[in-house]
Amino acid sequence: MTLRIDLHTHSNESDGTDRPGELVEHAIDAGITHLALTDHDSIAGWQDALEHRGSAISLVLGAEISCQTKEALSVHMLGLLFDPENQPLRSAMDQTRSNRVTRMERIVGRLQEAGMEITIEDVYEQLREGATLGRPHLADAMVKRGIVKDRSEAFDKFLHNRSKFYIPDASPTPEDAIRLIKEAGGVAIIAHPFASLRGRIISPEYLESLVEAGLDGIEIDHRDHNEGERDALRELSRRFGLIATGGSDYHGNGKENRLAENTTDMAQFERIVARATGFAPVGE
C-alpha cells in the first residue's frame, strides 16, 4: 500500500470550503492514508472529521496557530497531536479569533478609503457560523461584489502581505506558540517559512532561535516554496535535526491547492508521533 501523508489542510471551520467530514471523504478519494486537519486557531472541526473517518484513513488532529514576531512579521505554526482540553492553548486560539474581527474591520476600512464598495457585513455573509474569520472570507465578499473574479485575484492585487491594505494579526509570538503547543503535548512545525511570494520571510538566524525555543520541525514541501527555498530548508532541517514535513495547505474550492500535492515521508511522520504526548493519530 502506498502511503500518502498530507499534514496541512483546512475546512470551513476556518477558511476552507469543505465541511470537515467532507474534507475527510475527499482525502480518502485522493488516496490519502494520513490526513492532518489544521484549521486556523480552531479545533471545532475535529469531531465532524472523526465521525466521517471510517477505517480508510488515519487522522492527525491539530491546528494552524497564527503568530506574529516582535517585528510584526506574520508566522504560522502547525500544532499537531496536542491535547484538545489544554486550556492555555485553547484560550490563546480563542483570543486570536477575537482579534481577527478588529483586524478585518480595519482592512475593510482601508479598502473603503480606496473607493471599493465593500462592507464588513459583506464579509460576514461569507463566514460560516463559528468558523475562524480570515482574509479568504473578505476575498469571497470581493468576488460577490464583482471587485475581483476569484480569491486568487483578490490576494494577488489587494490582500497579500505586502499590500497597503494588509494589517498583521494580533497574536502570540512564535516562541509563545511553540511553548503552548508543546505544553499541550503537541508537536510544533513552522508552516511555509520561506514562502517569499507571501511577503516577508523569516531569516535562517531567526529560525535557529525558534529551534532553541523548542521548534520540532519545518514544513518544507509546500507549493509556495520554490526549489531553492526547499533546498535551503532541507539543509537547515539537517543542521538542526528538525522534522521535515510536506502538506497541501488545501482549502477546498478556495484555493488552487490540491490534496496530497505535497506530502510527508513516513519516517518523518513517525518522528512526529513519537514526540506527541497530548493526542495520538486516530486510526493508526
From TrEMBL:
InterPro entries: PHP_dom (IPR004013), PHP_domain (IPR052018), Pol/His_phosphatase_N (IPR003141), Pol/histidinol_Pase-like (IPR016195). One of its GO terms (molecular function) is 5'-3' DNA exonuclease activity. CDD domains: PHP_HisPPase_AMP (cd07438). It holds the Pfam family PHP. Residues 5-69 form the Polymerase/histidinol phosphatase N-terminal domain. PANTHER family: EXONUCLEASE, POLYMERASE_HISTIDINOL PHOSPHATASE N-TERMINAL DOMAIN-CONTAINING PROTEIN. This is Unannotated protein. It comes from freshwater metagenome.
